[in-house]
Each structure stands twice: as structure tokens, then as C-alpha cells.
Amino acid sequence: MEAGTRSQLEALGIDPRKSLGQNFLVHSADAERIAAAVDATPDDAVIEIGPGIGALTRPLLQRAGAVIAIELDPRLVEVLRSTLGGTPSLTVVHADALTVDFAALLAQHAPTARQVRFAANLPYYITSAAIRKMLESGLPWRKLVVTVQLEVAQRMTAKPGEMSLMSVSAQFYGIPALITRLGAGAFHPPPGVDSAVIAVTPHPAPLYDDPAALFALARAGFGQKRKQLINTLSAGTGLSKIDTAELLLRAHIDPSRRPETLSIAEWIALAAAQKAYRPPE
Predict the structure, then answer these.
(1) Is the backbone peptide bond immediately before 189 cis, with ω within 30 degrees of 0?
(2) Is pLDDT above 90 for 92?
(3) Does one domain contain both 18 and 44?
(4) CATH code of the domain covering residue 193
(5) What is the band of 13 on the pLDDT scale with cuts at 50, 70, 90?
(6) Would you say 194 and 184 are in contact if contact means Cβ atoms under 8 Å apart?
């Protein structure tokens, strides 16, 4: 199948561009597995980021009521429109997924969709920004399925003790689960690392009503690796160490702990404590 993918690209005159992080999915079985994880129904719209030449787009079209495929490379936009453009449920959008308005695309191209799901084979260099944009889109998304570098997948699913800002972000908005690992040979050209498919299912209800405040704290907390929270939060928030210690104690968190040890519930408790705390004059 890999030879087929390479041959198809060569026949189209397309040379994968390293600058765009292009690694094309090779095996149809992997595409089917990813599409199954998206779990779309005819009532759903799927926003696909990085469709390439349509390996995943095709099985998504068999399941979803509408697929909006966002592609940055104009060469691939032309390929998708010429090979799949006759499919009424497909819209191919030539745009940068990091700047495009997801809500506007849905309103224009899938106004009757009851739910939205995301699917993406992400170039490694935009992974964090793209995941954050999908998670924070404000849309009523029901599933987010992304193919990412294995290391990113491990960070998204990490437990307290190995948490990161990526872990906090993914787990605040939903429950991430590793679907399958993909070796370098699953792509053409093969990347230098293994990959994994991650599915994020949203929590039944928001965990906290002020995510911006929570993530401001988390960014401060993780701003200096391997340092104690009393130091990183003080440096990141501008509070004195005395006030920072008081804030942490009010959230029932030992000031000597390190940010990677905190659970999502503890970050929420810390954000709530900060909202209620008024440093003494």
C-alpha cells in the first residue's frame, strides 16, 4: 500500500514538503480505524484538518453527514477537489487551520448538523496550537481524534507526576484515550518518530467556569520546569512568595510540590482559591 501512496503522489506531481510537515497516511486499514474512532453519524459534521490526498476523508464521508476538509497546501486542495469534489457532503477549504473560523465554516457548509467532531493528521510543528484551538473552539464538539507524535500522545494522557501544560489542557476539556500506535512506516515519507492516534471525549459538563484564569495559573506553574510551585507561581503571577504560599494552602496544596504532580481537580481548586483570595494590603 505504501508503494501505492508514493506512486499516487508521483503521478500527481506532488513532492511532500518538509516545511509543511507533510507525512501521508499509507494504509487504508489505519484510515478506517481512525474514522471509526471519530464515530460520526449522518447527523454530524466532521471538521478534518490536514486531509492530504483524502486517505481519511473517504471513510469519514461514508459515516458523516458533512465533512469540511481544511487544507493549507494549494496543490492538495486541487487534488481533493478533482478526486472528491463531486461528493455533495464534502467541502474542501483552502485555509490555515490555525486562523480559520470553525464556527463560520459550520454555519456556512453544515448548518443542519447536530454535532461536530474533529479529525486531524497534524503536522508536528502545529500540533499544540491546533489541538488547543480545537479544544477551545467553543463548539459543541463530541469527539476530537488526532494523529500526533507519540510523545505528544503520552503527554496528553499523562497522570499526576508526569503532567504538563498539554496534559492539563487536554484533560480539562475531555478524557483522552490512546486508540492505536502508528510506526514510522505507516506514513510516506516516514517521519523520524512513531505516532499515535488519540481520541478526546468531552466531559458531560464543563469542569470549571473560568478556563482562562485556570490556564493563566497553569502557564505560570509550568513556566519553569522542575521548580516548586511556590517559586513558579510567584514568578508567573507577580504575587509575593508569602501570598503564593497562602493561596496554595487555601487550595490544600503543599507549596513545595512541583506543577507536574497536580491533578486537574487541584488546578481547579487553585483557580477557585485565587478568585476568592484578596492579598492583604
Answers:
(1) yes
(2) yes
(3) yes
(4) 3.40.50.150
(5) confident
(6) yes
Do the beta carbons of residue 203 and residue 175 sit within 8 Å? yes
Number of domains in the chain: 2
Q: Which amino acid is at 243?
A: D
For residue 281, is it within any domain? no
Q: Mark whether 100 and 227 lie in a shared domain.
A: no
Q: Which amino acid is at 144?
A: L
What is the band of 1 on the pLDDT scale with cuts at 50, 70, 90? very low
- C-alpha cell at position 56: 481519511
Q: Which domain holds residue 51?
A: 2-202
| Pair 110, 194 in one domain | yes
Stretch 231-259: mean pLDDT:
95
Place of cell 486531509: 51
User: Residue 243 belongs to what H/E stretch?
Assistant: helix 241-250
The pLDDT, as a whole number, for residue 4 is 65
- Please give the grid coordinates belonging to residue 239: 504575587
Distant-in-sequence, close-in-space partners of 92: CB < 8 Å, separation ≥ 6: 51, 69, 71, 77, 80, 81, 84, 85
